[in-house]
Amino acid sequence: MERSMMKKLLLTCISMFAWQINAIGQEFQFTVNLNYEQLVSQQKTDPQSMGQLQTYMNDFLNNTRWTNDEFGKEEKIKCKLNVNLTRSVSQGNYEGNAQLIVSRPVYNSNYETVLFTYVDKNFTFTYLPNTQLYFNENTYTEELPYILAFYANVALIFDYDSFSNLGGSPYVQKAFNLVNQARNSSPAKRGWDSNGDSKNRYWLVENLMSQQFTPFREGLYQYYRLGLDVATQNPAETRTRVLDFLNIVQEVARLRPASVVVNSFFDAKSEELFKIMIEGQQEERNRAYAILTSLDPSKTQLYERLSL
Domain spans of the chain? Predict the structure, then answer.
């Protein structure tokens, strides 16, 4: 209950509190965007079946009960899942990629921060309209619900970690169990197996399970709850917490270079990190510049303004 209780304290819509108690629902506010233009150009699909597919993904993510905590309407975790289908090798068999974006509000502001973004290049599954898909977290059933369940648990990891120290640990274990089930049974092993893509689902959860990444996950609580959430009252404290976290990330990256978790963090946070640190003293900006350009060299042009 710790994460849910903490989030209640952060809500600013106090007038809605009594209504929210009677509006308990599932954990997510997922928006699924499905792009299948490439399939249309290949004449390998029809809009009706794609509409049913999008509805299935929305319903599965938003209507499944993923935790034992109670979530009011204003507490739901906001996520986007952008799916791009690129190929249909046979009827009902699809290949493509997906981008998961998880966000949460920052206390006492109108700002929503992106907690995590992840690009899955192995979004391969089977779907036939009007066919029931089954999901059992303890036994591999079918590919699409297993991939979606994995995304849901990853979203829970980063959301719960941001509200309490290592609060997402139960969902790390759940995601790990899903990977183990799928890597032994899935026909699309490239997305689940250690021998597949170095940024696939296996390596994402391997990072999150690893003790080498425990300081990173502990740092997420420092970054969000003790950093961003006090930004309006104490921006200097926020910058201190951000710099402390960047030092942690630097050490983790030294132990595990080019890891999917660290790379995904900077994909999500580069603009935010720049905006926070540009307000600091020159010494703070210089420290941030040195770390950021070493860890996220592709964004050097953005970070260069910190050193001016």
Answer: 23-209, 214-308
